[in-house]
Amino acid sequence: MRLQTLEQLSKNDGLEGSRVLLRLDLNCPVKTDGGGQISVSDDTRIKAALPTIRYLLEKTDKLVVVSHFGRPKGKYDSKFSLAPVAKSLAKHLGPENEVLFVEDSIEEPSFHLTRKATEQVVLLENLRFHPGEKSNNTEFAKAICQGFDFYVNDAFGACHRSHASTVAIPEFMGRGKIAAGKLIEKETSALEPLLRGPEIPYVVAMGGSKVSDKMEVLINVLEKCTHLLIGGAMAYSFLKANGIDVGDSRVEEDKLDLCLRIQEKAQERGVQLILPEDHVVASEFKEDSPAEITAGATIAAGKMGLDIGPKTRTRFKNIIAGAKNVFWNGPMGVFEWDNFAAGSKAVADAMAESSASTVVGGGDSVAVVNKFGLGDKMDHVSTGGGASLEFLEGKVLPGLWVMRDYS
Ligand code: ADP
Ligand code: MG
Q1: What is the pLDDT of residues 172-204, one digit of tens each?
Q2: Of the bound ligands, which one is closest to the alpha carbon of residue 366?
Q3: In angstroms, what is the span from residue 382 Cα to ligand 2's centroid?
Q4: Is 124 helix (H, G, I), strand (E, B) or coil?
């Protein structure tokens, strides 16, 4: 799907002196210090938004930014205020572009603010403090966007949601007045080739906690990939479905048939589906549980699999080394705990060392790559967890669909 780009918008209509409403995904992880001060702990999403902000600030002198943050219940809740994000954004933009943070965005139409404000960037408080955001309410959308000349969406991570700021606002603004920002362009151009079928060998590594979360992606990637490497907790459902004992490992009993169907489909398509042949196990689901390595794929009663074992790591690394394209979603083990992080690190290292085109998607998978400082070694690290997975499921994301280009 082609999207209306910022360049098209700027060429066709001229953005000079216009009022632009910019939807970003500033839903950043935060931390609270001893004194109760909340600050941004991972500014990846802020950095990812900078190219669009800078492009727009060159063309026009005022910008109103909107975003969601966390999951408040449709009313004000200080835990979910965008105030810490405003501070971090101001730091990134530097003294030449000041940021005004506005707590009440409905009382006074936001375009009035842009006229009065001396700051170039105005950030409105969390959209999800209003119930109309999640219900995609037209009146709420109008209240937010009235008076603006253009709407730009660069919130890739929110494009799988039909919310007021991703769907009702662009619908209300109308064609020719809306465009996708640079992050959305970058995300879609990295993910689209995977959906169409990239050069082979195309290796997909999938892990994470549940088969049920990843079912649709698994089925979709099987159409295109040559190798499907399975790790994480979902591997134990596959092993159990094949009659292999997995002890106390996490298994989704009601998904065993589905695992077998996925395996059949892989066989029909000639895809090599590879399950772990050894594991790192422990007696308890605890950070400091002593780690043991199994001899083979079987896990003894009383033990649970918390990571892929060394033989599996080597096998996965070798397959990744021979790939032309690699997509990875879902940690291979409980990477948050050092005893069980080696499997995820092995996949991240293999991708970092490979000459293949490498794409990582999914909130926790991206956290793994950042934990090991390998983000720069990947061709693309997606900022959209759920959105990138839905994209690879082949679903049309509503927030992208409204910005499609007919020309
Ligand atoms: P992503 O966010 O990248 O899509 P998921 O949310 O599906 O990934 O899965 C990540 C979670 O899966 C992590 O919190 C990790 O600890 C957990 N996990 C991985 N392997 C195991 C395992 N063997 N047992 C229990 N949890 C696991
Ligand atoms: Mg996750």
Answers
A1: 999 889 999 999 999 999 999 999 989 999 999
A2: 1
A3: 13
A4: strand
